[in-house]
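Kindly go through the entry underneath: sequence plus fold tokens. Please state briefly how this chain folds according to its tokens.
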Amino acid sequence: MPSVVKTNHTVGWDVLTKLIGEPRAAAPVPVMGQADTLFNRELSWLEFNERVLSEAADPSVPALERLRFCAIVSSNLDEFFMVRVAGLSRVARAKPKTQYPDGMTAAQVYAQVREHVVRQKARQAEVLRDILTELRYSGIRIDSDFTRGSPLDRTILQNLPGLGVTLRGPKDALPHLGFNQLHVYIGFPGEYAIVTIHDRQSRLLRIPSKGAGLHYVLLERWIADQAAKLFPGREVLETFPFKVIREADLRYRPDDEDQLEEQILEAVGRRTRARVVRLEVDSPAYSEGALFLATSLGLDSASLYRFDLPLDLRTLLVLYNAKNRPKLKYPSVQPRTPPPFRRSARVFDTVKKKDFLVHHPYDSFDTVLNFLRQAAEDPKVTRVYHTLYRTSAHSPVMEALKLAAKNGKRVTVYVEIKARFDELNNLRWASDLRRAGVRVIRPYGSWKVHSKATQVFRREGMEEASYLHLGTGNYHPTTARQYTDLGLFTRDQALGREVSRFFNAIIKHKRPKGFSDLMVAPVNMQRETLTLIREETELQRQGLRGHIIAKMNSLVDNATIQALYEASRAGVKVDLVVRGICCLRPGIRGLSENIRVVSIIDRFLEHSRAYYFRSGGIERVYLSSADWMPRNFFTRLELAFPVKDPSLKRYVREVVLGNALSDNVKAWHLRPDGTYFKPRAPAEDKRLRSQFILESLAANHYKDTILASRPKRP
């Protein structure tokens, strides 16, 4: 499969309208309760994970890419249980009749989650077997069955990593079970042993092999199958590998902001002994040992999951980096530096002329790094402000901010220490920045700062000009090569004043206010979103063609969904590109027949959020760090920022959103019953794969797009 598709498929607006179709006239309002109009959030998420699994099952996807998707399914499920199922199980036990907006009770949702997960994992086991067979034909062998003995026993014994072995009687307390470790249960008459592989990555044991092939064994399965040899003189009754998943939500006092860093540090430490929410057993059948473990951990049968499937597939991702296997992966994408940033010695000179969009991973993240590095070195730069949600352990972004402080700039940074699973990394960076002379803002207790913003002030003549980078994704050089995200560079001074108000509010721990261009959560984002949807509805009723296009990760907020239903009933065409959770039900006559929902699952994680409103021909386009979810609207500090440049608005509308809506290779369509389908594959010359098209455009310097010939700022 080529890395760059030679295509002219930049979808024009007239073509896109034909593909989408004209909106239907307003229909009578059906008689239905709210529960009939919403999908359950948890079950919708499981449908998303099912689509990821479908990528792993697709034989047209290269084998190592299939393995990567299969591992992502497991990683996603683990986090789902740590966070969502942990909370759901508490409610289901304490108040089982608690009703959710979709009409289901907590007990019903909990039961259906289990049913879906059991089916999904059974399918995953079949998919993994198929992938491992394909890899074996390609020279990568992973042994997982040792029931008949193995000629490799001696080699494995000589290369065993550090293991923990605990012997217990049936009345003894269980040893502590680490949640990031793999364990093997071995039952004997009157006692049992638990063998722990402390470093989970070492479970994939490489075996020396002749030739160019790679050979590995899954150590936990070898231990289980060869337990009698490891414990001579004991009768082995049963063996199986297992792991535990523990609750991940941190418990701290949000009102005690002065001690918040200490609280977060302590709470992260408590995670290792948090409540177990799932026991997963790798075995072809349930057994007394599995039930014993579940009972000892205080779990009911609904929290015990048994699959004939290797545990913790994330560790298999080491194979993804195998060298000399180009046919087993997609060709690597080489992020490009947009021509204006290559030609100009200074980012500031380029942005001063006109606004610019960068689209990662097709455009290089180096454009963002150069912006920060040049700000650190430029003698005219006086101040730098930055929000950090997630970044890498060795972050060039943080190094640039430290350099700016060293060079005498006033650098102010908000580091979000409550970013789940990145708490320790962010605490370390906060401390590191302070030592470098950076002002690190005291963290909020209740709100998370999820916005992605950098503001640089530069002396230019008699004024101090604001330069902005506002993005939809994290300042993370690794995920910038794996996720699709958009970033805006602008010298718009009105926008700069509003972003400055945003930073000042964070510094003073006050509720932000005073915005006309920006939509800011938790201040006005939901209200302004509803206003834009309702304005589109009213314009449609006045005879003007209404059109809303929204691209996001998740759509959950009920008020927004109801406003979209009202727009659809009025005849507004609503096109939604929702990668993950979608609680809205499209295609219901009299309610949502003018709404369609597509979800794109491809090699890069779709992460950008973009919102388009036709507004009677004015056309409003916003980019954002926020999804349309209650948590984004009310518990996070988020930004949705306007794209003002007409050429950039057209690019977002036609190229970014237009190609996503026209994708007929990797797009899934949501049915009214909550299931997704892929349309029948088109002929080869009619195939339109949006991520390949965007890669091609970047490689060809956006030739034949509106970006190729843009006027300078007046």
Summary: The first strand starts at residue 140 and ends at 143. The radius of gyration is 27 Å. Residues 13-31+519-708 form a domain with the Endonuclease; Chain A fold (CATH 3.30.870.10). Residues 63-94 form the longest helix (32 residues).
